Amino acid sequence: MAVRHRLIRTSPEVVWTLLADGTRYAEWVVGTAASRPVRGQWPHVNSAIEYQVRLGPLRLTNLTVVRNCEEGSLLELEAQAGFLGTARIAIEVRPWGEHCLVIVDEHPLQGAGGAVHNMGVETLIQLRHRAMLARLAKVCETDAENGRRRSRTGHRTDLPETGGGHA
After folding, report:
1. Does the predicted model carry a pTM greater than 0.85?
2. Taking the CB of residue 154, how many other CB atoms lie within 10 A of it?
3. Which pLDDT tens digit goes with each residue over 123-154?
4. CA-wise closest residue to 22 among 55, 60, 54, 66
5. Mind listing the pLDDT tens digit for each residue in 71-103?
6. What b/e readout covers 30-67, taking b as 16+ CB neighbours within 10 angstroms?
7. Most CB contacts within 10 A, which of 52, 93, 148, 167?
8. Which residues in 9-131 belong to E strands, given as ranges?
């Protein structure tokens, strides 16, 4: 089971706002070229986003479904990866002082991915999570900084001042 965490130097609200935007997953999910909501209101339970993975000229389109959502703190997803099967991905968002601790927990649920899951695959998932959490931190910290700049100049900011993101 691949579990990884990262301290992100912004508020949990900023992180949740990004997680709650199904159109922005390609900005931080490693290997994803594009994403878009296709069912329900992301990230409500049973809503789904379609995502595209590009491997050279090959383009694979798959689906990620919300299985559990505790707004502002927990998002549990089932990622469908074609012949590889499905994986459970839990993203936990915790306040950590004035910052945010994000914990990602991923493991195979069904299909070939579970059958070939071993220490080598686990290592690859850990490397992917390290890169993914670094990208998530960069996007969130940039969003927070841009929001602070806009709010100081009096222009409207898209980031919430208080409370959770949209759901």
Report:
1. no
2. 6
3. 777 778 899 999 999 999 999 988 755 444 44
4. 66
5. 999 999 999 887 778 989 999 999 999 999 999
6. eebeebeebeeebbeeebbbbbebeeeeeeeebbbbbe
7. 93
8. 34-39, 48-55, 58-70, 74-80, 86-96, 99-110
